[in-house]
User: Fold these one by one.
Assistant:
Number 1:
Amino acid sequence: MLKQSKPLIATVVATMALSFGVGTTGVSASKLDDLQNQQQQIEQKKNELNRGIQEKSSTIKANSEKKDKLLAQIRDLHGKIETKQNEIAKLEQEIQTTKAEIEALRASIKELEQKIADRDALLRDRVRAMQVTGGSASYVDVLLGANSFSEFIDRVSAVNTLREADRQIIAEQKADKATLEDQKNQVESKLATQEENKKKLEAAKAELDRQKKDLNGLVEQLEAEQQRLEKEQASLETEYSEAHEMSDELKQQIVAEQERIAVIARKAEEERKRKEAEARKQAAAAAASEQAESNRKAATSSKPASAGNTVAHTSAPAPAVSGGTWTRPAAGRITSTFGPRDLSWASSNHQGVDIANATGTPIVAAGNGIVSRAGSHPTLGNYIMITHSVNGKTMTTVYGHLSAIGTSQGAQVSKGQQIGRMGSTGRSSGPHLHFEVHIGNFGNPVNPMLYVPL
């Protein structure tokens, strides 16, 4: 549509240039018709452009709503990602704490391992000593080697103490080894659990990041689409603005042409009145001359004139033509008047008066003027438009639904002159004349009954 509209506008401009290049002398109703056709083309183009603009605007609005929904999802994902990030940070801090605990435990384990090693060395020494002395026999040797009873008692006490110490060392050795193994298992399990939780959190965050990336991609696509649509809409709006400016220019040209035709109609009316006045003057002079001749003959005649020999002749107007500025445009009955009406198949605001009669009933010009348009219209059917000059003011009459057109654009017509025949062309329910009166040029309809004797 963008590629086709500019050539059309260029064509209209070229047509306007050719049309305006024609000489301005004489009546050029065809030029007015061309201007109005060009304006109609521009208006159609404006409607197409406006529809395109509205479609783009609707699509842009829909995309914008879709984009807002995606951005809302992205904001929600941002919140979830931040939550996961905080959980990961908290877990990393816990892991660091656990690692610090592990380091401290390692130092404790190292000390415990040293104690266990020392005990192992002591126990090995004791075992070697027992092996050299034959095991428990060494305790007997110790007891029998006493030199007195009191020394024997002391040695018995010392032996018991050593044996209890050996049992204590062995028990502590077992307990320390069990504690060491348990601490190692707890720390390693805790660390493994934390590392596993960290992996899960990182996987969840990675999935959220992926979703966010996908949504960002969709947003970028929508933004690119929005930019394309907005660019196309701006182009359509520019074309619409150009077409609107051209339409305004055409309207000015049409008004100027209508005014020019109105001037011609006014001059034609002035010329008609001048000729009528001249004719009346010549008729009066002829009547005066005839009366003078009659008087002269009467004075010289030997026979007096008889009153019964004088016959008065009158020239009455045709029955269908009224006196004054306007006359009824057709015989028949009025079926619809000017103004609002309740019809399902026709305009609710009637801009004229309908006069019904048989098909073929003569249609006459309601007043003196110049035919500004004569042609066909989807609603009016065959129609005629006449521009009149009434006391220096422009008026326009319209005659629609004709079965036949008996005049042409640019023709000068007189009040009561037949211009066509009644019909039912266009949007019509039966044979009738649709008659309109406009103040000035076409576009300012008034009630015809206020001006024309109907």
Number 2:
Amino acid sequence: MRKMTWSVNPQNSYVRLRHLCTNTWVHSTNIPIDKEEEKPVMLKIGTSPVKEDKEAFAIVPVSPAEVRDLDFANDASKVLGSIAGKLEKGTITQNERRSVTKLLEDLVYFVTGGTNSGQDVLEVVFSKPNRERQKLMREQNILKQEYIAKQFGFMQKQIGYDVLAEDTITALLHNNRKLLEKHITAAEIDTFVSLVRKNREPRFLDYLSDLCVSMNKSIPVTQELICKAVLNPANADILIETKYQLNLFARMCLDRQYLAINEISGQLDVDLILRCMSDENLPYDLRASFCRLMLHMHVDRDPQEQVTPVKYARLWSEIPSEIAIDELTKILLAILDCVHITTIFPITKMAKGEESKGSNVMRSIHGVGELMTQVVLRGGGFLPMTPLAAAPEGNVKQSEPEKEDILVMDTKLKIIEILQVKRHKGALDFEHIEEQAEGIFGGRKVSLH
């Protein structure tokens, strides 16, 4: 029997894990654990008798504070699970009610990083919650979003009684696309519309705005429901406070929602919005709201298409410290091929079969130019160093596109000629190459340093 030996593994090392009882190796799977998240990041693990080198796990040090947080969350989860069972059976005692209330208060301070100084926990305002502790509470099933979402009907009945029911609903749904699509129906939208009408508070318009998006992406299902409710003439009285209206309209139009765009754009045209954007007498936040509406209602819509802009700026770290002259030549030739062919061969007024000989010649020249580039880009060697054919005698007038195309091909030949100088010389002699380039380009100074 082989004797087991034990040794200490250093931190930040990589190991394979073997299950002693079954003599199998731990493997990762593609089965997500955090299914309720929009982008799951945690995967289940399993075991297999096959050992693979790629199934390595990192030994990462954990701070004592993280261990304490995990212990507290784990214990809280067990207590809350036990209390939930007693609540369903109706067997909870007064002492247990008081203790679970105290535990819930501690969890609020735990996730917000605050300290309990005796004030009402519902009145305390926190600026920035602890994201890691929020994640830990979800992992320990303390925050069961799917379970809470099933109680929407009950929570809606509490709206308007100043118990933060509407804040709870919007916070629960915020940036949670799965819950928004599953649980928000026309009934929920009508409830918020009624709240705007009853309370005349613009924050309810903000709640409607939040229901339109998740992670800055539109949710077409809820967008349509909100559009049908808000744009209904019978609900025109809920459009209070201009800034909140504009923010809601912008969210309703997000990602080319034409149900809203077609209806609203007729009332708020480009000129009107531009005047409001440029009016320095208006508050900055109101002008910003007009800007957002302009973007989502008039700019990001047909016939405009998104175009990736040319990247004029580069990080210095992205620029290679050196580049082979062969690669540089290929880049230059590719750039020269960026001349658009439609500027060279206009055909708008040319009938079929009426192409002139001149245009055929220009097509041939352009084709030769592209062929030169392809030969170099494929690494197929260089063309012979032959000068361009002399221009025909007499006053032959060339169009601007024709001159441009000949100039492009001429430049390509000169670039290749410079590279051939380098090829013949072997080692790079920049002074000699510079002299050759100056002569090739007609006396103009061209530095290759």
